[in-house]
Specification:
Elements (H helix, E strand, L loop, with lengths): L1 H15 L1 H6 L28 H15 L15 H4 L34 H14 L1 E3 L9 E3 L1 H6 L10 H18 L8 H5 L4 H7 L17 H19 L11 E4 L34 E4 L5 E6 L6 E6 L3 E6 L6 E6 L5 E6 L5 E6 L4 E5 L5 E5 L5 E6 L8 E6 L4 E5 L4 E6 L6 E7 L4 E6 L4 E5 L5 E5 L9 E4 L5 E6 L3 E6 L6 E8 L10 E3 L5 E5 L4 E6 L5 E6 L5 E6 L7 E5 L3 E4 L1
Length: about 600
């Protein structure tokens, strides 16, 4: 109030006494009786705003638009520009990569390859041009830098490719073609208009030909040279010999056999293949073996199959990839008793007859041979000119002369061994036949093939009665029959064993599936224990796997071989003994 009063008094004095204004030059000087002046702070009605975050946001947006994008990130939180998307990769070289490119940025063993859409012809043209001239067009280059390689050679050759023909070369070819046309023309020849309009005539072809070969008639055959005549005579002679031998058969080698035992007959006149009289089943139940009992070594290459002597198991037969078949003693000496040599290539499969006195062998030399086990003589030999992958005899006692063989030409061939004649051919598969398994009291048999299917046949009738093929199925190179004859175990190449019923429907049992082993790519054998309680299989890592039939759980695994364990057989009498064979050439008895 004092300030207002002072302000009012001063105004009054200024207005009333202008002379005093001249006398007092500083009218604002307060009187000594007035209160001292006080300054009021300025106030603003606008709210106080912190613009720090706004400044940071603007700075980050500017930084995002200028910084390169990380090539390994999958999401971009802003809209990048074209230059940012296609900018080259910057940054320090990777310390552990030879070329400085991190492993995550590679899509090729030599670094990073950029995708480009190029037609096959254009690619071939640039590829061959680069190898011939040293330069090629760059499909992903920017404007003004369209070539890579030797740019000096590019300027010298005027940017031509291997497929572009220079102008002077084109003219030269046209002149040569015109000369050829004139030489072919006969000036005295009278052209028939009817023939000229008929596309089937030579005149029309000569006039409208578009290639060097069009319209040219084959000339008369000239006489053969001495060398050609000699070759033709040799070829005709060779064909005649093949015709006399009965067509294209397997390779033949002399059949030999060597006995390695002490004597072929004992003091009572019994043969060395006779089973011991005291051989009988030791247990009613089978047990998983725990330790190695014996190892047979004699094959110089892998062993592809093993078979115990039927019913007694006192001998074991082995088929080797060294072209030999050997039979070994199991109970006594544990030595090789006889070697059978009659194949020129690896032996694929073997099979005993019911009493074990004879056996079959199938080799990659396209031959099937029927041997006498005791003497080692070949009783008969069969061949169709194709490789037999599996051989089986009909299990019926009255049909032991019937041989079935699954061939590489998709057929199952049936022979009568008494007459050596083919009596039936089962031809429905679309790939090589791998297995033959008799079911239903030997009235039917199941075959598997490389065509990833199973087919069921009536014996003697070449018509499929059941065809099993699903999109998820794989090839099944080994099939075994359960001792109860109600189930089939099929080794599938997707690392599992599938179970099929042998009733009318041959249905897949989805509740039983045995897995855990690695067999993809290998024809590892699957088998059952004689009492049916266990399933056994080899695998590609040299192990032998045992599963419980009821629970489908892995019971035990044995490390048997170095490499692939290809075959496994359960002893028919000694219920806790198992034999395995592998590509290491060994047969092991557990």
């Amino acid at each position: 109030m004092d300030l207002l009063r002072t302000y009012t008094d001063q105004n009054d004095v200024e207005l009333n006494d202008p002379e005093d204004q001249n006398q007092n030059p500083n009218p604002n000087t307060p009187s000594p009786d007035a209160s001292p002046p006080r300054l009021l702070p300025g106030k603003s009605a606008a709210p106080k705003v912190d613009d720090t975050m706004l400044a940071l946001t603007v700075a980050q947006a500017h930084q995002a638009l200028s910084r390169p994008i990380d090539p390994v990130q999958h999401a971009v939180a802003f809209n990048p520009t074209y230059d940012q998307l296609w900018a080259p990769i910057y940054g320090p070289a990777h310390p552990y990569a030879k070329d400085g490119i991190a492993q995550g940025m590679r899509n090729h063993k030599l670094g990073f390859v950029e995708d480009a859409s190029i037609e096959p012809f254009v690619f071939d043209e640039q590829y061959n041009t680069f190898h011939k001239y040293g330069y090629a067009a760059d499909p992903s280059a920017s404007a003004g830098n369209n070539y890579v390689g030797d740019l000096d050679a590019l300027r010298e050759n005027d940017s031509i490719s291997v497929y572009s023909i220079p102008q002077h070369e084109q003219k030269k070819r046209k002149i040569e073609k015109k000369k050829e046309m004139e030489e072919d023309k006969d000036p005295e020849e009278v052209v028939d208009k009817v023939e000229l309009d008929n596309p089937a005539s030579d005149t029309w072809l000569m006039k409208n030909r578009k290639s060097p070969w069009a319209g040219k008639k084959e000339g008369q055959q000239t006489e053969l040279t001495e060398e050609q005549k000699k070759y033709a005579e040799e070829y005709a002679k060779k064909k005649g010999e093949e015709r006399e031998r009965g067509g294209e058969k397997g390779e033949t080698v002399p059949d030999k056999s060597t006995f390695h035992g002490k004597e072929e007959k004992d003091y009572q006149g019994r043969s060395w293949i006779a089973p011991p009289k005291d051989a009988k089943a030791t247990n009613e139940h089978c047990y998983i073996p725990k330790r190695l009992v014996h190892t047979w070594s004699g094959h110089t290459k892998g062993v592809s199959a093993i078979r115990f002597f039927p019913k007694h198991g006192h001998l074991i037969l082995s088929a080797g990839m060294d072209t030999k078949v050997k039979i070994w003693d199991v109970f006594n000496s544990g030595k090789c008793m006889r070697t059978y040599m009659g194949h020129s290539k690896a032996v694929r499969d073997i099979w005993f007859c019911n009493d074990g006195t004879k056996f079959l062998t199938a080799g990659y030399d396209k031959n099937i041979k029927y041997w006498d086990t005791e003497t080692g003589q070949v009783i008969s030999s069969f061949s169709t000119g194709k490789i037999p992958y599996v051989v089986r005899l009909n299990p019926d006692e009255d049909k032991q002369n019937i041989l079935l063989a699954g061939m590489s030409d998709k057929k199952i061939v049936q022979w009568d061994m008494n007459t050596a004649q083919i009596t039936q051919e089962y031809d429905q598969h679309l790939g090589a036949v791998n297995t033959i398994t008799f079911v239903d009291n030997n009235r039917r048999f199941v075959t598997s093939s490389d065509d990833k299917s199973l087919r069921v046949w009536e014996f003697g009738i070449p018509v499929v009665i059941k065809y099993i093929s699903e999109p998820h199925m794989h090839s099944m190179p080994s099939i075994s029959l359960h001792p109860s004859t109600n189930y089939l175990a099929a080794q599938s190449l997707d690392n599992q064993i599938l179970i099929y019923g042998t009733r009318e429907r041959f249905q897949l049992n989805k509740k039983k599936r045995f897995a855990g082993h690695i067999v993809a790519g290998y024809a590892c054998q699957v088998n059952f224990s004689p009492d049916g309680r266990f399933v056994m299989s080899g695998d590609g890592e040299g192990k032998c796997w045992f599963w419980d039939w009821k629970t489908c759980r892995v019971f035990r695994t044995l490390k048997c071989h170095e490499g692939v364990c290809i075959g496994c057989e359960w002893h028919p009498l000694e219920q806790s003994k198992v034999a395995t064979c592998g590509w290491d050439g060994l047969i092991k008895y557990w």
